[in-house]
Amino acid sequence: MKHVQEYRDPELTRSLAAAISRASRRPVRFMELCGTHTMAIARHGLVDMLPPTVELVSGPGCPVCVTATEEIDRAVKLARQPGVVVATFGDLVRVPGSRSSLARERAAGARVQVVYSALDALELAMAEPSREVVFLGIGFETTAPTVAAALEMARAKGVENFSLLAAHKLLPPAIDALLAGPELGLDGFLCPGHVTTVIGTDAYLPVAEEHGLACVVSGFEPADILASLLMLVRQVEEGRPRVEIQYRRAVSPQGNRRAQQLMARVFRPVDAAWRGLGVIPRSGLEPAPDYADWDARRRFDLEVPPAQDPPACRCGDVLRGLCRPPECKLFARACTPTSPVGPCMVSQEGTCAAYYKYRRS
Amino acid sequence: MGKDDTILLDHGAGGRASHELLQRVFARHLANPVLESLDDAAVVEVETGRLAISTDTFVVDPLSFPGGNIGSLAVHGTVNDLACRGARPRWLTAGFVLEEGLAVAVLEEVVAAMAQAARACGVLVVAGDTKVVGRGQADKVFINTAGVGVIPPGVELGAHLARPGDAVLVSGTMGDHGVTILAAREGLGLEVPLVSDSAPLHEMARDLIAACPDLHVLRDPTRGGLATTLNEIAAASRVAIELDEAAIPVREAVAGACELLGLDPLYLANEGKLIAIVAPDQATAALQAMRAHPAGAEAAVVGRVSEGPAGRVWVNTAVGGRRILDMLAGEPLPRIC
Known about the structure:
The complex is a heterodimer.
Chain A: H1 2-6, H2 10-23, E1 28-32, H3 35-43, E2 54-58, H4 63-66, H5 69-79, E3 84-88, H6 90-93, H7 102-107, E4 111-114, H8 118-127, E5 132-139, H9 144-157, E6 162-168, H10 171-180, E7 188-192, H11 193-199, H12 205-209, E8 214-218, H13 222-238, E9 243-245, H14 257-266, E10 267-274, E11 278-287, H15 296-299, H16 315-319, H17 343-346, H18 351-358
Parallel strand pairs in A: 1-2, 1-7, 3-4, 3-5, 5-6, 7-8, 8-9
Antiparallel strand pairs in A: 10-11
Helix pairs in contact in A: 2-13, 3-18, 9-14
Chain B: H1 16-30, H2 33-36, E1 50-58, E2 64-65, E3 68-69, H3 70-83, E4 88-99, H4 104-121, E5 124-133, E6 141-151, E7 167-170, H5 176-186, H6 202-211, E8 215-219, H7 225-237, E9 240-244, H8 252-261, E10 275-278, H9 283-291, E11 300-306, E12 313-316, E13 322-324
Parallel strand pairs in B: 4-5, 9-12
Antiparallel strand pairs in B: 1-6, 2-3, 4-6, 7-10, 7-11, 8-10, 9-11, 12-13
Helix pairs in contact in B: 1-4, 3-4, 3-6, 6-9
């Protein structure tokens, strides 16, 4: 806790905010790519400390939010099969699919188990050999290595009643897709500390070099975020966009090689559907051929009809930085944390949930 | 009935076994002349005036936790609800739902703690009831307590009475109970001392009322924590409340555990803390009245009431920002009390 307090020191944060105000001349727009950043910015009220020239928009960095409706529909279909336990992270349970959610299926008698990691799900499978335990794996490069470790362990121990419904997402292809899409008027990215810990900084080089956008890899405490914003502002003011690391206590340029190798052994990249962004080539992961026996898509019939997203929900636009939550007609009316319509209101890291909770007016 | 006995369905059937359980466990610990009459209803004498009445059901899991058990909690919870309306707590009723197979020794521990807490609060348990349900139809012990207290003349406290300009105080650290229960239940093995703050607050409430003629609101921030209770007050009084995050006392062990678990201490339950909203010129008197009690040693002024927007609670964050503090939504921490 003492370690954390250093990065929440009010003198430090106030002087960083003052430095941003002094450095910032021309109006800039930065996107934070990570849901944890979205939540930290809102929880500490950082927007209130920034000069009017610095605008922040949220991007597609909340793993629950970018999970396509079809994936929820598949999980619902799976949960309805007798003898199946669907294990997943808590937030996902409440995300509405086309017609149902895992929470509703659980209320109707399905076994939906909230776990904190894929290894918990594997343990559950070993404890209940008569049931099929399917882990619904979501998340970016930060969670994928632990899921890969669980699959390696399942294979090594010959656990046959465990499988993975993989809905993992890779961040770099999403950044490419964002930059190829409608003009967002961005000047730079606040890059995610945790994902970069795994993948390293190479992925951002084209963003800076080809697209001319500032990139700073940031930690998650208030002083980290303000220091990173100061670095971004300075890059823009100097006219020298590049990739910088603020979060040096965790991130190295080459990333975590062991985690990268583990992912490469267990997974292979596939085209994946993102909520709001559509299908992005090679932006998802599926178990590699050696792990096909633990792939839930091969083990069960998971064909589902095309998904129906609620027509007025603008989660897709929110995830691309095209609209702010209050601009959605449903926000804080039909869609609230207690009865969410779209995933951005469900997840604790969702942009709509952060707005609702901390910045409503 | 021996030490190793367990509760059977017979113990709730009203026959000989029920009677035996009543004598062996309940009468032994809770005995008083009103309860002992064993009639259909308790009869008590009241002076004229106003009564405060409250009821609460306790399903906490685990039954015992650092700082108390479900028996003491069931007394403190209801006593504190009465105290927050300015009442002197006098009588409690206690209803037990027991799960078949519960060890009688466990029940006895719960009832003994309840009796001890009631004695310490100066309240009598005047009526009670026990039901037994089959295994799996309840979890060990559920307790309902209802309480009756007498409100002295002239005392007028309520969530709707906060006024712009008032000072907002808390009587101590936030989140101790919620995080202690969570850590005990999940077996988190955190190597930090977490203890529930479960404690009676009627004496502190009495002294606050005596010290502050313009005390407007007293509440105990239980489920949903400080954040939710302040939202309720702001809505009921049609005012805004502004808090200073840095002034809100949070024990370091609680803050650390919250950081680890992704929780916010402002949303966690307390079972031995008061929120007082008082005219600004009496904030110091209120602070002194709180600090005179051991449970109020870390009392602090944490914010103020402003005109509006009605129902809104703001926080000036410790790092220098500003944000909304909303009600608890969709983060269920079940069975903490």
